Amino acid sequence: MKEELMKRIECFLEKHPELKGVPATLNEIAKAEEELQIKLDDDYKEFIKRFGGSYAGIAIHAFANGSSMGNETIINLTNWCRESFEGDEFSPEINKSLIFSDDGSGNPIAINANGEVVIYYHDLGEKEILSKSFESFVEENFAEW
């Protein structure tokens, strides 16, 4: 990820420590990749190794999230989504994706196997590509306040 963006997020989180998680370890990342049977996106890994589960315009979950973000890990979120969508048309894609957030209405937000950030509208049976990459997704959504 661009260092300028990472510095902006770092400065923001210093002012709002309740939104910053505990940085992820290489061991936690390796265990998640093994359990979920996917390779985590490189930019996402860079983010969580620096900030853990933190707020960057939207809640970005990891293993230890900021205290005001909830306790759901990416393993919990991804497994829940895989179970919820089992057997539907999105199941094959979701099984190769990482769920790292939601929209507040229960619609999961994922990084798919192509590196795109996608939202799955569970009530509508539709999906929407939100951004071409995790980095661009963060850039488009992050704003200091």
From TrEMBL:
SMART domains: SMI1_KNR4 (SM00860). SUPFAM superfamilies: SMI1/KNR4-like. Transmembrane segments: none annotated. Gene3D superfamilies: SMI1/KNR4-like. Residues 23-140 form the Knr4/Smi1-like domain. InterPro entries: Knr4/Smi1-like_dom (IPR018958), Knr4/Smi1-like_sf (IPR037883). This is SMI1/KNR4 family protein.
